[in-house]
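@channel sequence for tomorrow's demo:
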Amino acid sequence: MSIQNAPVRAAQWLGRELGLATMKQAGKDVYIIILTRYIRLFAYGSVALILALFFQEQGFSDEQIGLFMSLTLLGDVVVSLLLTLVADTLGRRRTLLLGAVSMAISGAVFATTSNYVALLLAAIIGVISPSGNEIGPFRAVEESTLAHLVAEDKRSDVYTWYVVLAVLGTSTGLAVGGVAVDNLQAIEGWTDLDAYRAIFWIYTGVGCIKALMTLFLSQRCEHSDWNDERNKSAASPETEPLLNGHETEDSSPAAQEASPKKSKRFWHSLSKISKSSRITLIKLCSLFFLDSLGSGMVPFSLINYYMERKFDLPKGKLGGIMSATWFVSTLGNVFASSLAKRLGLIQAMVFTHLPSSIFLALLPVPSGLALTICLLVGRSVLNSMDQAPRSAFLSIVVLPGERTAVMGVVNILKTLSQSSGPSVTGVLAGNSHFWVAFVAAGSLKATYDLLLLAFFGGRVQPRKEEPVPEVVRGVEEHDHVEQPVDVQRTA
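structure tokens (generated this afternoon):
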């Protein structure tokens, strides 16, 4: 009897370790958010493969390509900041819908024009990812929504699959994009530029599908203050400020009269982040500056560009190689939550990200394709394993009402620090020193890992949790009581 039950117990254990038990009960909204991220990263991956080559085909120099990517990231900072600030007031679903529409429009512009300024405006106002990774307001809003929907002790599992499906989406996009470009180039009368433009039409279609899927998200995704205001028949047209994480207990006329003033001070809502959260935010931003600057120097599109220049690879083969590296990274991400439960959030982040930084610095060393691919695979397996623990860590060190703003600020400042990287790499590439960018980027990211362990390797005090909708069941009430949490042994 015991032997017969062994496979069942093993399957149950594996389900718990991989977070499958949590995902089974996660609910429709969580599934939609994760699926829309999958198709979004599919589009990002397909475009990242050909973005630098798209500009090269139109005669732009390496310096112009790097400058374009830098200005795109700077523009994304502004747009993401505006949308992140209004997310909880405008509504999270509306913000995601607006981002999806912008994504579709920017793809259409890239598919129809060759004007440098028009392309730049489309990339800034719309959503074009130079790196194949997350860009725009989506991630901050989605992570805040997931934290709102999922209990604290279940978030690491959900964030893990949120990352896994994203990586799988990028991998699929790279593979499909590479094969599509090769097949389109083989059509009589089609130029390389025509094939690249077809990829941008696919990008536009994905934006439209994402917008449609966003319409199926329920009101449960919204912040509690947004729902409260929406349910008021005609009492007060003003909305609560973004960072008002808890409902006010003061319903007196004086408090109601103060509401317009709060609305007018909305744009200063970042200053209302609690003192302890501000201290944490400053530390994190100072560290993420180093990591993101390194990432900005070698965005995925420039890695593709480097590989194509160094080894003169066909687009289909290049897409297949890059797709494979992203696919194997999915295997590592599946176990990110389990690793965080055993090592702790910070330790899991550092012990996976540090080796990947070293592999990045060594990438230009091999003269052969095989060893270069091995370094790419090693980096890819470990590089994104820190994302789920990082999201879980951010969600427990700030107040619930601050999550969207804090995560938004973190992602925006990361993008801001990335923005100077492509320009530096463009200058280096134009002077035949492309390899220096990889060494510098790997060194910056390794420094970030060591400082992160030094700053946050101990205990933190989790912020008081808000009530969680019954999306993830089986969580006892005492799970939401404020207790000291050891980030060395928490998930």
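heads up for whoever presents: The first strand starts at residue 459 and ends at 460.
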